[in-house]
């Protein structure tokens, strides 16, 4: 589990296109809620989607990054404090 100072939310859509999920977690409301819950980082694996998330939150306190694909996301999942995934 990740330490308290570096709490990461990892969002993954796999190889699909799920822009609705990526857009939802990129919203100011969700970012604010994550900050309020003590998360410091948001990492989004966006798959084949065309929506590109913003790399900063509104107040720049939540570190946001994204990527399309990776040979393995096992490390991302293992080190995340919370995993949000497309499960269908």
From TrEMBL:
| UniProt keyword annotations, A-Z | Transferase
Please name the InterPro entries in this protein's record: Glyco_trans_28_C, UDP-GlcNAc_transferase
User: Would the keyword Transferase turn up in this protein's UniProt record?
Assistant: yes
Annotated Glycosyl transferase family 28 C-terminal domain ranges read 8-88
List GO molecular-function terms, semicolon-separated: hexosyltransferase activity
Q: Which lineage ranks, top first, belong to the organism behind this chain?
A: Eukaryota, Viridiplantae, Streptophyta, Embryophyta, Tracheophyta
Which Pfam families does this one have?
Glyco_tran_28_C
- Superkingdom in the source lineage: Eukaryota
Q: Does the keyword Protein transport apply?
A: no
Q: Which organism is it from?
A: Zea mays
Name of this chain's protein: Glycosyltransferase family protein 28
